[in-house]
C-alpha cells in the first residue's frame, strides 16, 4: 500500500466518521423535522422577503423563502445566505435561523450536486446500515 492510498483511506474514514457523528447529533436533537411556521406580521413586514436558513437532518444547509416560493440545499452556510440575498435582489431580505433542523419541502433550486450527494448518502445508509450504526 502506498502512502497516497493510506492517506486516501484515512480521509475516507474521517469523512465517514463525520457523517455518522452528524447523523447521531441530528437524531438526538430532533425526532422529526420542524415545521416552518408563518412569520408574525408584527415582526417582519409582508413587503420584506424572509428566508429560513438552517440545517436538515443530513447536515446540509437549507435556504427556504418563508412563503415557500423558492428554496435550495447547500454545502455551506454562506452559500445558503448568498442564495437568499440573490433571490430577494434588488431588495434586502430578512434571515431567520431556526434552532431546529428542518427539511426542504419544495423543489431544490440550490446546488444540484449537494442534493444528489444527500440522496446517495440516504441510499448508502439503507444499503450499508452497519457502517452507520451507533
Q: Largest sheet at a glance?
A: 4 strands, mixed
Q: Structural class, from helix and strand content?
A: alpha+beta
Shape: elongated
Count of beta strands: 4
- Per DSSP, the total helix count is 4
Q: What proportion strand?
A: 5-15%
**Spans of at least 5 consecutive residues with low confidence:** 28-33
Physical arrangement of strands within the biggest beta sheet: 3-2-1-4
Sequence of secondary-structure elements: HEEEHEHH
Average pLDDT, all residues: 79
Notes on the protein architecture:
- It is a single chain.
- The chain has one domain (3-132).
- It has helices spanning 3-29, 77-88, 112-127, 129-132; strands spanning 50-55, 61-65, 71-74, 94-96.
- Helices cover 44% and strands 13% of the residues.
- The chain has a four-stranded mixed β-sheet.
- With 134 residues, it is an alpha+beta fold.
List the helices and strands and how they pair.
Blueprint: H1 3-29, E1 50-55, E2 61-65, E3 71-74, H2 77-88, E4 94-96, H3 112-127, H4 129-132
In short:
The chain has 134 residues and is an alpha+beta fold.
Feature tags:
13% strand, 134 residues, alpha+beta
